[in-house]
Amino acid sequence: MCFPFIRRLSLAMTIVAAMGVAACTAPPKAPAATSAVPASPPPPPPPPAPAITPVEAEPVAPATQPALAFSQYGQGPVVAMLAYADKVRPLSPPELAAELGRLGDLVETPITQTQMALVLAQTRNPADLARALGLLQRVISNPSAEALPLQPLARTLAARFTEQRRVEDDRDRQAQQLKDSQRRIDQLNDRLEAVRAIERSFARPNSTPPPVAAPKPAP
User: Fold this and answer.
1) Contact status, residue 117 vs residue 149, Cβ threshold 8 Å
2) Exposed/middle/buried for 219, CB within 10 Å: 0-12, 13-18, 19+?
3) Tens digits of pLDDT across the chain (219 residues)
4) Could you tell me if 78 and 114 are in contact, meaning their C-beta atoms sit under 8 angstroms apart?
5) How many Cβ atoms from other residues are within 10 Å of residue 88's Cβ?
6) How far apart are CA 121 and CA 127, in angstroms?
7) Are residues 154 and 143 in contact, defined by beta-carbon separation less than 8 angstroms?
8) Among candidates 131, 125, 133, 120, which has minimal Cα distance to 160?
């Protein structure tokens, strides 16, 4: 009599166990969709930092040119030589002659040769310009350590003086041609005036009639 009860009890336990296993293996339910919350706007950017204006340094006045002591180069022989050229440029002819005399009393070096060339170029004399070119050529061909820093400047001056000499030669040639043309014009004017004087003398009427010969007496 108890067997049917036991059979029903084991069947019920089997069904309960199967339901528990099915519950464990069932997929989890998806979570309910939450309502969309609007994103908060980003915070405003911080204000830019004020620009810092740099303080400009006060301009420093250029140092005055040192005395032209060519035994001590200071800023360099080329800079010193350019300063010397600027110094002798406005000199008058007597002052240029005095400077040439002073340089002639010094020991001849590449520095004094370049200085003398700069002074000779200011006299506006073709012979002095030729002497200046000769002095610069000696500086250019000098292989000494004292001449090497001055050679680029000497070549530049030599090219400039050569061009200046060519221009002055052309100017002198044109001036001479103008003088020759003016002299020929003056000679032609003199000859033309002489021809006109001869023409006027032929065209002038004779105011005194020729003398009448007295009749000869009858024999």
Assistant:
1) no
2) exposed
3) 445 556 666 666 666 555 654 445 544 454 444 444 445 556 666 655 555 444 443 443 333 333 344 444 445 888 989 999 999 999 999 999 999 999 989 889 999 999 999 999 998 888 899 999 999 999 999 999 999 999 999 999 999 999 988 888 888 888 888 888 888 898 888 888 888 888 888 876 655 555 555 556 555
4) no
5) 16
6) 10
7) no
8) 133
